[in-house]
Structures are given as structure tokens and as C-alpha cells.
Design a protein that fits this description.
By secondary structure, the protein is an alpha+beta fold. It is built from twelve helices and 13 strands. A hairpin with a 2-residue loop joins strand 11 and strand 12. The radius of gyration is 22 Å and the shape is globular. InterPro entries: DUF4743 (IPR031804), NUDIX_hydrolase-like_dom_sf (IPR015797), NUDIX_hydrolase_dom (IPR000086).
């Protein structure tokens, strides 16, 4: 078991120790001195910014972008009014690290298995509540098999339907007892969880997926416009509703949404275009799949192990998106100088920001000659995820 856990730890070690060119000895000294003020159960990502890390030191970080066209106070413009966080002027590398902030040297987790395949990582506070819940059942009726180093389903919970019921019963119990605040946002949307054969092992309520650190999927659409004469690109930016439970009032992609059962990424993209931006099918069907961004993010709601499918959509200059539900305050067409300024002011929803950074890299707006941390940025927005991925081709066969 000890050797098994060592392998698990290696799979989910933070990127800055596995994939970035930083001395491991130096990093270990830095981590040991930095984590004293951080409790293992604290899920506030602001504590994870290593102030002494030269790669992301705010005072020493040089800006590689020109923002001369931006007013000193961007909130005096006609653009969206966004309340900035206490700390602003982040570097691009710092932004992606704040999003991809899971560190197994800091965060205490318990692996969640299906048979011999690890599906997720459970935060310690969730693990403690799971043990309490499991004890309320008789010996032969316990839904989970729990040890100090591992959680899995009990032997009798061995089908797609049974696993889904066990997870739904658990989350419903926690919701009704107000155990975790994230369940206040119950969506009645099911997310698929895949096994080692890329088949759906079970479905789980969307609002509870981060409690188990299970892999989730979303899609983000970069809606952009190209000037026909200068070929300069601009991007449509959405401002999230101030009434949304998550990231109220923050800036976002023109369209984004979680991929729920039984939709595929492309089906979700097209559906969300209509729901969020009043975009007709004649336009939305032209979305171009452009890969994905991947990261593991520690948040107040748990651990988000995310794969966000990315789509580019070149929009006609005559098209103006309009809110079609209560999730968006409005849309703004921005030049990239302004987008960069607002990114550094932390006005964007964190994962939407890295999708835009990915867009800038792919379209030559952010290049290796402009950003000294170019490769480190790439590593932090394409983090390997050690859990099974989806097979959306077969997904609809599950009823």
C-alpha cells in the first residue's frame, strides 16, 4: 500500500515540482518555509501564492505587454464595472498558477477508487464527513469501503445504477443537512464519471463533483471578430450576473458551460451559444474545436479537476450577442490590450482567463519573444490529469 500511495503522489504532484525547470532542493526549502501559515484543510487559493518565488514575484515581474491605449482607471471607461481583488497587477504566470494551484505537499487528500482505478482525490474535511455518513449504515449495508488511505464503493455497489444512487443519496443527505455550502447551488444536472475503459461508471450531481475531486468537463467558446482591413482581432467578453452563486460579476468568455449528461462538448457549445448569447444555429454551428485546457484547482467548494474543451468562433462584425437568460449582465467587445489589463487586475473568472491566455498563445498575441515564462505558462494550462478520460462517442448509449 505504501508503494501504491507513493505512485499516486507522483501522479498528482504540483506542476512546479514535476514539469517546470526549478531546482527541487530549492523548491522544497521554499515550500517548507511557505506552508507553515497554511493549514492542510484551508482551501483558500489566495494562500497558495508563494510570495518569495522569483518566477512570480509581483514587485520584480516585468510587464511584456503594451497597455498604452488603456486609461489609468479602466473603470472610468464605458466597459463593465468589475470590483477588483485586493491584489492586482498579476503576471500571466501568476494567474495560471493561481488557477492550477493543487499541491500534494500542501493539501491533504484521500484517493477515491473504482476497483483498481483512481477516479478522484477527496479533501480531508470531506473525508471526515464521509466516514461519519458511512457509520450510519449497518455492517453489510455501508455504501463505501473506507480505510485510512483509500475510499471506494462497497462490493455490492457494482453497477452504473447503484453507484449513481449511492452518490445521489449521499449528496442529498449533505445538502439537506447543510454540510457543505457548495450544495446550496444544486443544479439538477448530472456529470458523467468515467472508468478505466472510458465508459461511464456513474453520474453525479454537478454541484458536488469537487467534493470528491472527480474529473469534470466544460466547454469555453472564444468569440472573436477580425477587422477586415487591419486583421486585428477583438474578442467578445461576457460579464457574469451579479446574482450568480459562483464568481458573480466577473468577466467571462462569450459562452461557457459545463458538459452534463448526455451532451458532447460540441453539442454543449452550440446549446450554450443560444442559451447565453442568443446566438442562432447558423453561426454557432461554425465553432472550431481547438483542444482543451487542463488544471487542478483548489477552491472553497473542493478540488476542481477540470478539462475545459476550447472552441474558437469567428463572428461576423454585424453580430451582437444578447443575454438570453439571467446568467449574463452584458457583453463587451474588447481589444486585447484591454483584455490583458483586466486579466492582470484579476477581473476574470479564473478558468476563463486561462482559456483566453490559451487563445492569445495560439493566435500569436502572446509569444515566446514577449513572455519570459512562456513554457511555464503552457505547462500550467495543460496539466496532465491522472484520472480516466471520456469516450463521448459511446456516452449516449447510457440511458
Amino acid at each position: 500500500m505504501a508503494s501504491q500511495l507513493t505512485k499516486i503522489s507522483n501522479l498528482i504532484l504540483p506542476l512546479h515540482s514535476n514539469f517546470l525547470s526549478i531546482s527541487s532542493n530549492s523548491l522544497n526549502k521554499h515550500i517548507n518555509s511557505s506552508v507553515k501559515a497554511i493549514t492542510k484543510r484551508n482551501l483558500n487559493s489566495s494562500n497558495l501564492l508563494f510570495k518569495n518565488d522569483n518566477a512570480i514575484n509581483i514587485k520584480k515581474q516585468k510587464s511584456f505587454f503594451s497597455a498604452s491605449s488603456i486609461n489609468k482607471d479602466i473603470n472610468t471607461t464605458n466597459g463593465p464595472k468589475v470590483k477588483t481583488l485586493e491584489r492586482i497587477n498579476h503576471s500571466i504566470l501568476e494567474l495560471v498558477k493561481l488557477n492550477n494551484n493543487f499541491d500534494s505537499n500542501i493539501h491533504k487528500i484521500i484517493p477515491f477508487y473504482l476497483d483498481t482505478i483512481m477516479l478522484g482525490i477527496i479533501p480531508d474535511n470531506v473525508f471526515q464527513q464521509l466516514k461519519k455518513y458511512n457509520k450510519t449504515f449497518g455492517k453489510n449495508e455501508k455504501p463505501f469501503s473506507i480505510s485510512a488511505h483509500k475510499v471506494t464503493f462497497s462490493e455490492n455497489v457494482n453497477t452504473f445504477e447503484k453507484r449513481g444512487k449511492v452518490m445521489n443519496d449521499l449528496l442529498t443527505h449533505w445538502r439537506d443537512n447543510k454540510t457543505f455550502s457548495c450544495l446550496k447551488g444544486w443544479r439538477d444536472e448530472l456529470y458523467p464519471i468515467f472508468d478505466g475503459n472510458h465508459e461511464i461508471a456513474f453520474n453525479i450531481e454537478r454541484s458536488g463533483i469537487a467534493l470528491f475531486g472527480l474529473r469534470s468537463y466544460g466547454c469555453h467558446i472564444n468569440g472573436y471578430v477580425e477587422d477586415p482591413e487591419t486583421h486585428k482581432l477583438k474578442m467578445w467578453i461576457a460579464q457574469r450576473s451579479f446574482n450568480k452563486q459562483t464568481f458573480p460579476g466577473r468577466l467571462d468568455n462569450i459562452v461557457a458551460g459545463g458538459i452534463s449528461f448526455p451532451y458532447s462538448p460540441t453539442e454543449t457549445a452550440v446549446k450554450e451559444c443560444l442559451e447565453e448569447a442568443s446566438m442562432p444555429y447558423e453561426i454557432s454551428k461554425q465553432v472550431v474545436p481547438c483542444g482543451a485546457v487542463t488544471y487542478i484547482s483548489v477552491e472553497n467548494r473542493g478540488i476542481s479537476v477540470d478539462s475545459q474543451y476550447v472552441f474558437d468562433l469567428k463572428l461576423p462584425s454585424s453580430f451582437q450577442p444578447k443575454p438570453n437568460d439571467n446568467e449574463v449582465e452584458g457583453f463587451y467587445l474588447m481589444e486585447f490590450d484591454e483584455i490583458i489589463k483586466r486579466l492582470k487586475n484579476n477581473e476574470f473568472k479564473s478558468n476563463s482567463g486561462i482559456v483566453i491566455i490559451d487563445f492569445m498563445i495560439r493566435h500569436g498575441i502572446l509569444t515566446h519573444s514577449m513572455e519570459v515564462n512562456y513554457l511555464d505558462i503552457l505547462s500550467n494550462i495543460h496539466r496532465p490529469i491522472p484520472f480516466p478520460g471520456p469516450n463521448f462517442i459511446k456516452m449516449k448509449n447510457k440511458k
